[in-house]
Amino acid sequence: SQMMSQLDGQQAAKLKQIAAQARVLQQDRTEASAQLADLEKLRTELNKNKTDIQAKLAEANRLLNTLTEQQKKDVLDSDEHANDSTSRSNDRSSRDKDKETPPATNIPASGRAQAAINFALAQIGKPYVSGAEGPGSYDCSGLTQASWKAANVSLTRTTWTQINDGPRIAKSALQPGDLVFFYSDNRHVGMYIGNGQIVHAPRPGKTVTKAPLDSMPFLAAIRPG
Question: Looking at the domain assignment, is residue 73 inside a domain?
């Protein structure tokens, strides 16, 4: 009987041990489940964040696409000389090449071109304001559009479209009234007035003024009308 009670005692101890191990295992399993739940939650949040970020990016792209070309130009080019250092090195070779055949000077402007030039010159001293079309202030393409409007010629509103508003003219064949586009990204336009000079609205903080044709890298020119 003593042996039986001893075996019972050992069995009881063994059962207690197994029960204790079972409790530990159950606790581990509960903790593991909780950790798994946390991981799932984290994954869900990360996916949500990813979705939010993608949605914001899509919205930003949508907004960018709704901007007019002029607004894009203003956003990307708040100071039109900001990239001078890079533009100069990139455009130097084409500028030097163009200098070999300077425009002929003192070609008389046609009647309409003269009207456009007279208007542009009368704006000298007025401030550059981004997006402005006159009469108190202008941006670069606003000035050229308003000047040719004074000559009863309709031009489009931006440098990107104005470059197609007339036949292309070689730099060597420029005549007063022609529009000249500058920089490799076509971010600026002025009006040629003869004698190697243009009139233009330079950039924020500046006023409408005359400048040498060669003060900026030449891209192309057109003849309105």
Answer: no
Residue 165 belongs to what domain range? 79-222
Mean pLDDT of the chain: 82
H helices present in the chain, as ranges: 2-66, 69-76, 84-99, 111-122, 140-149, 159-162
The predicted structure's pLDDT at residue 2: 63
Q: Which of 126, 187, 188, 203 is catalytic?
A: 188
Report how far residue 100's alpha carbon sits from residue 33's, in angstroms, rounded to the nearest whole number: 80
Task: Please give the tally of structural domains in the chain.
Answer: 2
140 is an active site residue: yes
Q: Which of 9-13, 133-137, 177-181 holds the top average pLDDT?
A: 177-181
pLDDT digits (tens, 9 = 90+) for 101-122: 555 555 566 789 999 999 999 9
Residues 127 and 208 grouped into a single domain: yes
Cα 24 to the center of its chain, rounded Å: 62
Of 113, 117, 120, 140, which is the active-site residue? 140
The yes-or-no answer on residue 200 being catalytic is yes
